[in-house]
Amino acid sequence: MSAASAVQYGLFLLIVTLLVRPVGGYLARVFSGERTWLDPVLRPLERALYRSAAIDPAMEMDWKRYTSCFLLFSSGGVLLLYLVLRTQPLFHAFDPAYRPGPVPPDLGMNTAISFATATTWQAYAGETTMTYFSQVFGLTSQNFLAGAAGLAVGIAFIRGLARQCTSLLGNFWADLTRALLWVLLPLSLAIAPVFVWQGVPMNFAPYLRVPLVQAVEYAEPVLDASGAKILDPAGRPTTKTARLTEQLIAMGPVAALEPIKNLGTNGGGFFNANGAHPYENPTPLTNFVAMLAIAALPASLTYTFGRMTGRPRQGWMLFGVMLALFVGGLAVGHIAEQRGHVLVRQAVDHGQRDDQAGGNMEGKEARFGIGASVMAAITTSNGATGSSNSMHDSFTPLGGMITIVNMLLGEVAFGGLGSGLYSLVLIARVAVFAAGLMIGRTPEYLGKQLTVAEMKLVGLYAVIAPMTILPLSALAAVTDAGLTGLTTNHGPHGLSEILVAYTTSLANNGQSFAGLGANTAFYNVTTALAMMAGRFGLSIVALALAGRVAEQPRKALTDGTLPTDTVLFGGLVVATVIVVSALSYLPVLALGPVVEHFMLR
């Protein structure tokens, strides 16, 4: 490992750790209604919003009503965004630069669900499919709203574990409003100028047409009147020589989207290349700030959890588990990419020297190299954020597998905005139950007994992901509709591409192995089903569990209580995360990236 990569990794983890306490404490004050330094400005605006929407923030909800409001809000976001995408030409007056037609129905449905569930899976190229109006009013606004809704659900889950003898988890509309006004908007406004300073565009200018210094000749297929390719007697497409004399450079209000795509653990890019595009992520500094934006809030929720439950050691134990899993993935990913491909090393110098980064640089930007590319891959695959600054499809089999495993583990290090915390807490409850059985102690967590009904909910939460990912992947792997998406790779790598599509959809992540052509009716429908299962199925179960736990009285600690705030228990949680996932996904991983790794050797 180079000194630059080591310093970058160490500095990133140090800053995230130092931010946990102040940011987590701020979140606890915001959602507990305590005073913050933003109150003089935001309190009047908050009251005005409540009056205009006829909302009583003091009226709390049980888990069923909280869930209903969450589903209603998310469904409204899907419908509104779908209408915007389907009626793009009606808003061309707001888009003097670029005027594409309406988004096709199946792609529009997929994209609307994708952004309203904070998945931001993109089966399209933003600069050629979306207008400025759609990017800002449609996609950017949903990044804010979906991110805030996810954070609200996470806070409600924490309240359920913190309270006793009540069925109330808070008010969804109040939590949503405070997540927007006190958290996401201020942080986005603080980060956006940094991105603009570093070169990220923020304009509504027309696309630039730049003459090429030298014309480029290329072959393009000859089409008939219907647009179909004309074939020669041998059945091959007929081509003609064309000349490219200018380059079209896309512009747009990119800096408006960039901060919230990371802060809200969304990840959808303004451009098709996402974080690898120099207008989205021009420098190592913007890359570093973006990674901090992804990790800081989910990591800090562990301190919020400890403070709101009155058990700060529990929060630090959860953060330690997240940190251990993150560091493990970072180490394996870096080693895999720095060593590169075995077969390629026989013909190409993969060594790391002063004049070259070495390793597997295919699909990576030279301005980031191995270190920043791997850090981004690990951060985004762990953080429910589909943003990427390199082509994960071009990673080594083991390097690419780490990004898949991070999502299959439930993205618990550091996780999505709200979802990472409650995913880890549910796994911790499995560890408590298993440990209690092994040592003969009553399974309790935070002074609440783990009853049969609650463990059924935990079990349901654990099986939703494999019961969605594996059948859909199998369906795609054995049907013509699914296999037609494998435009570049087949065999084990093709299976990995299919697996990633459904894993990233279920995990509400949005990353892709881009060798899969996913803009078909089959993939648009099936990935949308996985997105909804990941967003709503898991959230409903988490809120139901929080509602049941909140009704229990808290028991006093005794000598027979299993301690759940120790390093030993943290190690047990790490082991549980790995074992539970391996039991579900090890066979499909063995058929995909593992066998591909051995084939290359």
Any key phrases for this structure?
two-stranded antiparallel ribbon; two-stranded antiparallel sheet; about 600 residues
What is the mean pLDDT? Answer: 88
**Overall morphology:** globular
E-strand count: 6
Structural class: mainly alpha
Helix content range: 55-70%
Unreliable spans are none
Number of helices: 19
Radius of gyration: 24 Å
Biggest sheet, spatial arrangement of strands: 1-2
Largest sheet: 2 strands, antiparallel
Strand portion, in percent?
5-15%
- Head-to-tail CA distance between termini: 22 Å
String of helices and strands:
HHEHHHHEHEEHHHHHHHEEHHHHH
What report would you give on this structure?
This protein has 601 residues and is mainly alpha-helical. Among the domains are: 21-200 and 254-299, no CATH class; 208-249, no CATH class. The protein is built from 19 helices and six strands. The protein has helices spanning 3-31, 39-53, 63-86, 105-116, 126-129, 132-162, 172-198, 254-263, 284-309, 312-339, 342-345, 369-382, 397-408, 419-439, 452-478, 480-483, 491-506, 521-551, 567-600; strands spanning 61-62, 168-170, 208-221, 239-249, 444-445, 448-449. Strands 1-2 form a two-stranded antiparallel ribbon. Strands 3-4 form a two-stranded antiparallel ribbon. Strand 5 and strand 6 (448-449) form a beta hairpin. The longest helix is centred in the last third of the chain and has 34 residues, at 567-600. It is globular and about 80 Å long.
Give me the secondary-structure topology:
Layout: H1 3-31, H2 39-53, E1 61-62, H3 63-86, H4 105-116, H5 126-129, H6 132-162, E2 168-170, H7 172-198, E3 208-221, E4 239-249, H8 254-263, H9 284-309, H10 312-339, H11 342-345, H12 369-382, H13 397-408, H14 419-439, E5 444-445, E6 448-449, H15 452-478, H16 480-483, H17 491-506, H18 521-551, H19 567-600
Helix pairs in contact: 1-9, 1-12, 2-7, 3-4, 3-6, 3-18, 4-18, 6-7, 6-8, 6-9, 6-18, 7-8, 8-9, 9-10, 9-12, 10-12, 10-13, 10-19, 12-13, 13-17, 13-19, 14-15, 14-19, 15-17, 15-18, 17-18, 17-19
